[in-house]
Design a protein that fits this description.
Length: 147
């Protein structure tokens, strides 16, 4: 799915005898691997539906296994790496955006910290402005008293 240079994939439940491009049973999430100006790199999984389908006996494809092992390790273990593979070497972690609707705790914590920081900055600005105003009034009263 998606458009040129900005693909995304739906994570779906599909019968094993059906075509991948045909009708599917249910959509359980999506994966957006590329970051754009508007949309961040993200994975959204409906954990309840995913847990249900895996308990019923659904088998994920290799690509979905990798996604589940990385973002939902409680659902599916990491796939076995073949011996002598180039992928045995450690790769740097990529920054990913976790959908705030699936993991709301971290999102609200970040928002709260951001709001506290903004409030602290505003208090500091108000304090400096008050100090300037008091100094200006003091100079004005000194000038009026001297004349």
């Amino acid at each position: 799915m998606g458009c040129r240079n900005h693909p995304y994939w739906k994570i779906i439940v599909q019968g094993d005898k059906k075509k991948l491009t045909g009708k599917y049973i249910e959509e359980v999430g999506f994966w957006q691997p590329r970051a754009g100006k508007i949309v961040k790199r993200s994975v959204a999984l409906n954990k309840h539906k995913l847990r249900y389908w895996l308990s019923v006996g659904a088998e994920p494809t290799l690509g979905v296994q990798r996604i589940l092992a990385k973002f939902g390790p409680e659902f599916y273990p990491k796939p076995v790496i073949p011996f002598g593979s180039k992928s045995l070497y450690e790769k740097p972690e990529k920054k990913t955006f976790v959908n705030p609707f699936t993991d709301n705790r971290e999102h609200t914590l970040l928002k709260r910290q951001e709001l506290q920081y903004k409030a602290m900055l505003q208090e500091e600005i108000n304090r400096v402005e008050r100090k300037k105003r008091v100094q200006a009034e003091a100079y004005a009263t000194l000038g009026a008293a001297a004349s």
